[in-house]
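Supplementary Note 3. Input sequence used for the single-chain structure prediction.
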Amino acid sequence: MKVQGGAERPLFMWEIINQRVQVEVLFGLNQAQPQRFTWQGREITVKKVNLVYSSFVGRAKVYYFAVSDDTNYFKLQLETDKLAWTLVEVYSD
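The predicted structure, written as discrete structure tokens, is reproduced below.
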């Protein structure tokens, strides 16, 4: 995509983060729904949970949450054996 001045601009930006974050979660029957998380001193409110999937790392089950706010998409990871959250990736328009 070209912008004024002829410079190329990517359509979106994807960045691998892999940083521990604090996540506020709503637990219901057989589900966990991230509500907000803190990253780089900013509180990000989750507007939508787009996808949830899981896999095993060794014997530990790991859940992944693809979430979004008003403008960005995030991939959060929950390690169930440690109860630790990681912000894996960020996608921006």
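The chain has no helices and eight strands. The first strand starts at residue 13 and ends at 20.
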